[in-house]
Amino acid sequence: MTTHGTTHSHATPVSRALDGLQAVLGERLVLPDAPGFAEAAAVVFTGEPRTPAAVARPGNTAEVAAAVRAARDAGLPVTVRSGGHSYARLGTADGALVIDTRLLADVTIDPAARVASAGGGVSAIAYTQAAAEHGLATGFGDTGGVGVAGLTLGGGVGHLGRRDGLTIDNLVGAEVVLADGSVVRADADENPDLFWALRGGGGGLGVVTRLDLRLHPTATVTGGMLILPATPAALAGALEAVLAGPDEVSAIINVMKAPPMPAIPAELHGTPIVLVLPCWSGEPDRAEAGLAPLRALGPVVDGLAAMPYPALFAGGPDLGPAVPVVGTGFRDVVDEAWAATVIERVVGAPGFAVVNLRPLGGAIARVAPDATAFAHRDRRVMVTAAMPVPEAVAAASPEAVPGARAWLAATEQAIGLGDAGYVNFMGSLTGADLARAYPSATLDRLGTVHAAYDPDGFFAVR
Ligand SMILES: Cc1cc2nc3c(=O)[nH]c(=O)nc-3n(C[C@H](O)[C@H](O)[C@H](O)COP(=O)(O)OP(=O)(O)OC[C@H]3O[C@@H](n4cnc5c(N)ncnc54)[C@H](O)[C@@H]3O)c2cc1C
């Protein structure tokens, strides 16, 4: 075979292993000289170019195991991806074999047991639509294209969190291909230490080929957009309204200059706004009362309506390819003085910037901090500051990305993101980043699990 420019007479361990894998995957092993390689290797965020050695697109667990063994035999580093939304661009790396799990996309719903069994490459929206056919849902984040596996491995913070907990709090088990190619189950009884680490540890332990997740009745919700004036009183009031509300009320709140979206009145475009994206997931007849404290804050646009749960994932600004510049943290004091600083930072940004705020609490806070690898259970508000730089802007102006990074560093300082953060909103995963993602006891325990299940650091590409 001459699949990637070598022949057996000059066969190297890499070419031999990739030839062997190609015998299993056929065209689903995409090599750099194959048509479609750039698309196969692309992830959501851009930045300095990265060229993997090959992209493997296995269609079942046995093929995933074959890809793992091939990478081992070849001495190739491995990266694993599902939805490709990692801010740290973890789904691609120079010279690595990318194991792309997106063909593992089946979803089986057991409505009686209220459990879904999903392939390790399914997207949040595909799973959500399948579950909605039964009036059921598992809470993920706010974006349909995000991979369920990637989101779950970090925690999973979204609209149903205050009611049902983080996504990981609804994980009942997983199937994982380990570094030696073996396939194991991780749940409360089998490999419980691996199960603990999968729930928030950020991945890097194996390839998750299946996730079993608990479902909750969630047919109709009330959501949409509520635009508040960008005042400290409105911002602090919105956060406190959710924190003080029942578990069935949530909101994802963006402080930003209004993007030119059709859903936002043209006269607001470019002006600072507090965009509140609430979700009422309780009984529909209690929605009005549940959302009244937010509506009392004087919205300039009230687009809230009852809708099927999957409709919450529609819309949202599509920025196109962008260089991620993102910072993560938590805040417990979210008073008007702090809210004023948040608004000032957004107004003064040298480009499109957003501070994204997620009131936590409810069921998230009722889980013990050491029960899963996500330990920030008592924090009140998750804060993410971001200034994604569109690829075209980054290419045209060499100052754009450094300018965004300078804005981010000053913003993190000004709004006090603190010494902790959410692993899934990190733009890199250096040792210092991991020390912010995990308290030292959690980090130590994760180290023990990594040493037991991936002693050579085979999946440790960061
Ligand atoms: C626009 C946008 C919105 C977001 N909204 C939310 C939100 O509301 N709530 C929230 O909690 N997070 C949110 N996130 C963060 C998101 O959870 C993380 O970026 C997550 O890592 C993305 O998962 P992915 O599978 O799409 O990414 P990928 O880049 O494919 O993977 C990310 C990480 O997960 C690992 N991984 C992926 N699949 C597997 C697998 N099958 N087996 C083993 N490891 C795997 C990868 O190795 C990598 O380390 C958002 C991100 C973006 C870009």
From TrEMBL:
Look up the record and name the cofactor or cofactors this protein needs.
FAD
FAD-binding PCMH-type domain boundaries: 48-218
Q: Which Gene3D superfamilies match?
A: 3.30.465.10, 3.40.462.20, Uridine Diphospho-n-acetylenolpyruvylglucosamine Reductase, domain 2 (3.30.43.10)
Q: Has the keyword Oxidoreductase been applied to this entry? A: yes
Q: Which InterPro entries match?
A: FAD-bd_PCMH, FAD-bd_PCMH-like_sf, FAD-bd_PCMH_sub1, FAD-bd_PCMH_sub2, FAD-linked_Oxidoreductase, Oxid_FAD_bind_N, Oxy_OxRdtase_FAD_BS
Q: Which UniProt keywords apply?
A: FAD, Flavoprotein, Oxidoreductase
Similarity field: Belongs to the oxygen-dependent FAD-linked oxidoreductase family.
Q: Which PANTHER family match?
A: BINDING OXIDOREDUCTASE, PUTATIVE (AFU_ORTHOLOGUE AFUA_1G17690)-RELATED, FAD-BINDING PCMH-TYPE DOMAIN-CONTAINING PROTEIN
Protein name in the entry: FAD-binding oxidoreductase
